[in-house]
Structure formats: C-alpha cells, structure tokens
Amino acid sequence: MTKENVNKEKITAFLLNYALYFILGLMILVVIFIKPEFLSVSNFIKILTQASTKGILALGVAGMIVLAGTDLSAGRILGCCAAVSASLVQSVTYASRMYPGITEDLPLIVPLLVSIVIAVGFCALNGFGVSVLKLHAFIISLGTQTIAYGFTCIYIESQSGGAQALSSFNKKFINFVNGSFDIFGFKLPYIVIYFAIAAVIMWFVWNKTTLGKNMFAIGGNMEAAAVSGVNVTKNIMGVYIIAGVLYGVAAFLEAGRIQSVNTTTGLNYDLDAISGCVIGGVSFSGGVGTIPGVIIGVVILQVINYSLYFLQVNSYYQYIIKGLIIILAVAIDVRKYLAKK
Amino acid sequence: MEEKQEETKQETEKKPTFRDNLYGKITIPLKTLDKIIVGIILLLIFFIVLGIIL
Questions:
Q1: CA–CA distance, A245 with B23 (Å, rounded to integer)
Q2: Residue from the list A222, A287, A331 with its beta carbon closest to the beta carbon of B40
Q3: Which of A245, A299, B9, B15 is buried most, with the most CB atoms less than 10 Å from its CB?
Q4: Does the beta carbon of B40 lie under 8 angstroms from any beta carbon of chain A?
Q5: Which residue in A27, A311, A327 is closest to B40 by CB distance?
C-alpha cells in the first residue's frame, strides 16, 4: 500500500468518525448564513435554558448507558413527578387548584423532596429489575414508562375540575425557576446555574468516587468487575438512585419552566436525553462516557432543535432527522469498534 | 487457593466484553459500513432539505 493510499484512508476514517460533528457544524453555519441574528448571546442563553432540564435528565440517563443499559422511562417519570410538584406549588389564590386545603404556600423544599422521592422510587424499581432480576434495562424501563404514564394520567384526572393542565403556580416557585442574574448586561437564568451545579456534582461522582469508578468497570465488563470484588448489585442500584434524584430535580424545574403540566409533559424527553448522551460520546456498549461529553451532546442537540426551528423545518421531519442522527451516531460507534478490531 | 484465583482471572480475561457481545456479531467489512454511513449522511441531508422546502 502506497503512502498516498494510507493517507487517503486516514482522512476518510477521520471524516467518517467525526461526520456527525461536521454535519451539525455545517447546519449551524447554514442557519447563521440565512439568519445572522441566530448568533447572539441572548439566543445562546435561550438554548442553554431549554437544554437545562433535559441536561439534568441526561446526566442521570448517561450513568445507565455507561452501565451498558438505557432508560426509556426517564421522560414519563419526569412527567409524573412534574405533575405532583406542580400540584403542590399552585397559587393559593387560584380557585381551581388541586389541593384547596393548602391555604399557605408550601416551602419549596417540600414539592422538591416529594418529586425526588417519587423519581427515586421508579428508578429503584428499574435498578432492582436490572441488578437483581437481571432483566435488560430496555424491558424494565419500558414497563416503568407505562406505569409512570398511567399514574400521571390518574393523578391529573383526579382533580375536582377534571383532567385540566396544572398551572397558576405561586410567585416564589416561578421566581426560583425562571429568575435570573444580571451578568454584563445579560440575564443568566437560575435554571442554567442549577444545571451547572448538577453537572459539577455528577462530574465529581463519576471521576472522584468509588461508585463512579465501579460504574465504568461494570459497564466495561461486568464479570471482570465482579471477580475484582466490585459489588455489582449495590453499585448498579447506586447509579439508578442517583439518576432518580436527578430526574426528581429535573421534573421540579421543568414544571416551573413550562408553567403548565399535563399528561404529555415529558413525552420524548428520554429520546432527547439518550440522543444527547450518544452525540456526546457515551457509548451504548458501556464503560465509555464523560460528563463534559454529555453536556456538549445535550447542548448540541438543543442547538439542532433550535436550528431546525429557525430553518422552519416541518416538525414531523424533525422527528425523522433526530432519528437519523441517533442511527448515524451508533453507526459511527460500530465503525470505531470494527476499525479497532 | 491462589491458583484457583489465577484460573478464574484468566477465564474472565478470555470472556468477551459487552462491546464484543453487542457489536461482535457484526461481520460486515469496514468499507461496506463506510458506505452505509455515507448513505445515512445523505439521507439526513435529504430530509433536512425536504423539511425546509415543505
């Protein structure tokens, strides 16, 4: 093989391995070319705000993907917890509130904790199925997804006024979620700060704790990890419970961000969280992934969403495009594996 | 006791990883996969353009 051929193959491999990033980069350039106003700080803050709750969700899902699993129930769990949180933060002056017995605003820690407890319950069920019953994460989370959706529908329909969206939240809650800092003339929303804090904590858990190291060991090779003395069941449960805490927080914040929770809240959020992880380099084959990768993946995905919106792409086509992006990301992962072999 | 541990270690080392289990059965040549990836890229571009036009 000549030197020229070797170089050509290397360039082809490079282009294919990073094809996804090139396409996304190209897409953003096209958007900037068509609508230069896309490139503004306020737009970027808007994208970050929209990516925040899905980002926190993705930080939880990423752990499961590193364990060589997945979580299809994340979106519906978020919807269920958001509904419960929303019902507890409705304004006491709102006549059609779900709990007329609440005559004073509850401290925000109460709905937050309730949301976390519910999410942890669902995630513990997933974790139990995966670690003890040895079910595939796909199957158990599919079941949990349906259960969570059922609970959400029952809960929302149990209002005295029927199945109406939960809205009219108290000012304290709205300000907690949608308030902002003034930095150099720009308003940085609190929700972005919460996302950043969650990311830093998860970076610490993944990189500086035994649980994080064990998680990568289990995801890479479960048998080898077990032989090395890692308590597989305990560690898998740990990862799922942490994911539950993140889902609970994300649900609480999402309720405040969208300010109206109904049965469709959280629909397809799991798809976005998984896509963000895959784009960010978290491998479906387990044992590979980084927190900065997840953050970048989620932000990129939100930029895609925003770009497609800016380009006025038909919303049905957006589903096809997102699906193709996931298939492309997995195909590239397979390519890297085959090339290594 | 040590010998046994050594044997178990060697057995584990020989065992395929999850990545092997997931992708190990894919036997298509790299060049064919490259063509598939190019196909997906073209399909993606096609749908983006179609989505903008329609």
A1: 32
A2: A331
A3: A299
A4: yes
A5: A327
Task: For this complex, say whether ipTM is above 0.90.
Answer: no
User: CB distance from A69 to chain B under 8 Å?
Assistant: no
Q: Among A165, A172, A141, which Cα is nearest to A74's? A: A141
**What does the pLDDT read at residue B20?**
67
CA distance A283 to chain B (A): 9
A29 to chain B, any CB pair closer than 8 A? The answer is no
- Taking residues A143-165, what's their average pLDDT? 91
Task: List A180's β-bridge partners, or say none.
Answer: A189
- Residue A319 contacts B, CB cutoff 8 Å: no
CB contact under 8 A, A227 and B8: yes
pTM score of the predicted model: 0.83
Gap between the terminal Cα atoms of chain A: 20
- With an 8 Å Cβ cutoff, is B26 touching chain A? yes
- Asked whether the beta carbons of B37 and A335 are under 8 A apart, the reply is yes
Other Cβ atoms less than 10 A from the Cβ of A15: the count is: 14
A16-70 pLDDT, tens per residue?
A: 777 777 877 888 888 888 888 888 888 888 889 999 999 999 999 999 999 988 9
Structure tokens at A178: 């949608």
State the Cα–Cα distance between residues B1 and A11, nearest whole angstrom.
52
Segment A158-172, tens digit of pLDDT: 988 777 889 889 999
